[in-house]
Amino acid sequence: MENKKVKIGVISDTHLDDYDEGMRRSIEDHFRDVDMILHAGDMVDLRVLKIFGEKEVKAVSGNMDNYSIKQKYPDYLLFEINGFKILLIHGWGSPSGLEEKISAKFKNVDCVVYGHTHKPANHIKDNVLFFNPGSAVDRFFNSSQTIGILEIDKDIKGRIIKI
After folding, report:
1. Are 40 and 20 in contact, with CB atoms under 8 Å apart?
2. What is the pLDDT of residues 49-108, one digit of tens each?
């Protein structure tokens, strides 16, 4: 059986405490044709999920998320798409060395989707794609607001988008 090409919208560190129409328009523009959305934590409030409409969303909780999010979403998710093992995690502690901390704790994955640092990342290290969409709202730690796209077919490719 041939694998279907899967297109995934990736977002993290939205830090919104309510539905945001501007963010909804950005998501609609850039994630219109995605098969699912991954949120790598720090939603801050569950109402943010309304921004994604009817799209399937996989999400994890982050260090800034409120109690209701931490009750509903785990610290990390491991799942498989087209035979590729994907880890979705927010991150913890100091942003410095975060990829190394994640690598030490989670083995045998093909792609790590993470947040926490607010800085986009899209590179392969030790045969693992490390993908961080950056922050969709922050301009303090990063000069621009960013989200990402992952495409999974015979391999996994990531793309960072400035919004």
Report:
1. no
2. 888 989 999 999 999 998 999 999 999 999 999 999 999 999 999 989 999 999 999 999
Decide the pairing of beta strands 56-59 and 36-39. Answer: parallel
CATH code of the domain in which 12 resides: 3.60.21.10
Among residues 66, 14, 24, the alpha carbon closest in space to that of 45 is found at 66
Report how many domains make up the chain: 1
d(CA 5, CA 14): 27
Question: The pTM is what?
Answer: 0.93
List helix spans (H) across 9-159.
21-30, 67-72, 98-105
Q: At 121, phi and psi to the nearest 5? A: -145, 140
Q: Which domain holds residue 10?
A: 6-162
d(CA 163, CA 136): 8
Give the dihedral sign, CA 63/21/112/116. Answer: negative
Q: Phi first, then psi: give them for residue 37, nearest 5 degrees.
A: -125, 135
The answer to whether 16 and 43 are in contact (CB under 8 A) is yes
